[in-house]
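Narrative summary of target 7.
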Amino acid sequence: MVTLEVRSETWPVRGAFTISRGSRTEVEVIVAELVDGDHRGRGECVPYARYGESMESVHEQIESLGGAISSGLTREELQEALPAGAARNALDCAFWDLEAKRKGKRVWELAGLPAPEPLTTAYTLSLDTPDAMRTAAKAHSMRPLLKLKLAGPGDLERVRAVREGVGQADLIVDANEGWSLENFSELAPELARLGVKMIEQPLPAGDDAALGEMTRPVPVCADEACHDRASLPALKGRYDIVNIKLDKTGGLTEALALKRDAEAAGFGVMVGCMLATSLSMAPAVLVAQGVSIVDLDGPLLLDRDREPPMRFEGSLIHPAEGALWG
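Modeled conformation, tokenized:
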């Protein structure tokens, strides 16, 4: 019989992490463990208030399935038992991990995927003043891809300052829904001239129809506007790329399906993360194989990580050891 264990954890951020919605110095995660004798499968999720989630609500969602899990609920049945979101992500990844440990195989083998390779991840620069972001950019100028958190007022100055600090490094920017249509119209051509490769979620999700009616000088990526496969039809013509995050899709199962359907529909694919530990990154690395943009730097932004952690060499992230996940 499989039993469920759920716990909340707090992990300190290195310094502070700031986006258009606010700043934080620690991150709260929920870990779900499925226990079957000597085998334990783990999954981690990050509840996100933007999607109506809280630590309490997600904890309750996960715990509500304890009886069903003990009675034989499967990973396939889980997809209907919970909606896409953080709770299902933790359980879905725990099911994958448990199956891998039971069978003595890696998750990528169970999913019929090629063996994963190391990937180059973006490194995120927190929202700050232009001078502070220039200084941060210089400190990370050896990284091939930097992601800048933006907010609207002063953003062009921020990007110019970062470009001065890093020279030829590739840049992508993320407004986290913080721009108006006027901001986008004014900033996008200037950002193209500064060599920005992508703009992530410039307008609020649900108020982005105008993106389909205008020239996009820089490719635009849907983040808050893209959750699972059901999101794709509304994104066509408005976005060039979709950002797949397991906390939005509700786990690895739907993330792999979303990747397949997004590519078939002609979207570029980015694989991103919430601010979280290596336990969250491990399954995402499987989805990120072969995509155009990888943004799995969460552990690099924390003051400490799990043991064993994902192995980073600069911005190169190596697939997880089985002792961590999968």
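The first strand starts at residue 3 and ends at 19.
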